[in-house]
User: What shape does this take?
Amino acid sequence: MQRTAIAAPQWGRFVAHVGRWTLGAMRALGDIATWRSHLVPQMRRLGVDSIPIALFIAVFTGIVLALLSSYIFTGAIPLYFVGALVGKTIMMELGPVLTGMALAGRVGANIAAELGTMKVTEQVDALETLAYDPRSYLAVPRVLAATIMFPVVTAFAVAVGVVAGWITAVNLLDLSTQEFWKGLRQFYQFKDVWFGLLKSASFGAAIALMGCYKGLTALGGAQGVGAATTRAVVLGCESILVLDAFWALVLL
Amino acid sequence: MIELRSVHKAFGAREILRGLSLEVPEGQNTVIIGYSGTGKSVTLKCIIGLLQPDAGEVEVDGDIVGAMEPDELVALRGKIGYVFQSAALFDSMTVNENIALGLRRRAIAESDLRDRIEESLAVVALGDAGEKYPSELSGGMRKRVGVARAIALKPKYILYDEPTTGLDPVTSAVMDELMVRTRDLGVTGVIVTHDMRSAFTAGDRVAMLYEGQIRQVGPAAELRETDDPVVRQFIEGRPDAPLSLRRAER
Assistant: This one.
């Protein structure tokens, strides 16, 4: 009982703090003149530079999915269903989620470490004294860049994953190209694509938001930056899982 | 004018400022001296609105800082320059870009930008450092770039946070001279330091912050001759009582 009484005001303060921060971020979004020039460089840094790691993951996901589905289907289901399973799974789930997880580490950690270092070395304070809102200058371009670029990176990953699955099926599973594409096309819906891309946009926003929040609220020195970075990655991964379930519940 | 009235500020259970009151007259350098951790930097951050007092008021040119809307705070910061103890230069930018950042915020025309940057770098005798990155500069040079970044904005006030800490004696003297020259240009300065030579060279008025309040404030010459044992001991840097005993008691 006593613990509940103590916890309630703490939760209240936390919610009020997050609310104030979010309101401030919304105000920062309107300060277009400040963040506009930083958007494209951040899109390149957070998005384009992340493509190699996303493709690396996608290649092996495609290979494993083809082999796994063949193992499950053999003797029970026609093998051309391998194409359907590889396509649907990569487009709707594994493409966005695995890419998101990899980028939670790369992008989330990058943002939190950079902004955290700026915070503890007073560079964020310096921005404020120069009459900039750090959220406009630092957070908004990163969150927007991640939201725009995660679907792009995911689209590349999905394409490469499906191609990897197809090459595996043709070379290792005695499946012809026609059979693989038959399975892929038979169950394909346009929703498979936009569902995955919408999810990845929300993952990008959440990962960048967590990175910015933890970075801009980092305290202390190197230890504080390390803690903020770790927490940003963990929160980013947790956000992906929660959002993944949310979109499945809402849209499927 | 800047005026602090009964300002209180605590971080958790640790009370830093306990009713600090201070007036900063225009056109002079007011130096705040005091032990490390007594709230000197906190005082500066309250003046520019980076920190909000828990109680009391900070007034700048008739406006209460704590009651300002975000737009008003932007306007306030437009007339205050801040020189950080660590210089706080943006390490991903060159010296020129560091100085230009604040000027661009004030919508200075690009044609005037170059002149303002060169002018401010010339004042701190770093005319050839414009294309260098902060990592290529010494500590003293970084602090001077910090000053150049502040004066380029042509502010009404400049707040200096430990401007000579960590510098060699010659570079410290250069910084002192800079602060005097800046005052002579009509800029009001608030200097936080525990470098006594700097305090009495650059300061017109000196205030001693002790146990969260101003212990004594007055013209620099007056403080130098003070009879207050706490202020005397601090100025002379003696390790004996009463300061050391009081600190040990806490």
Summary: Chain A is about 85% helix and 0% strand.
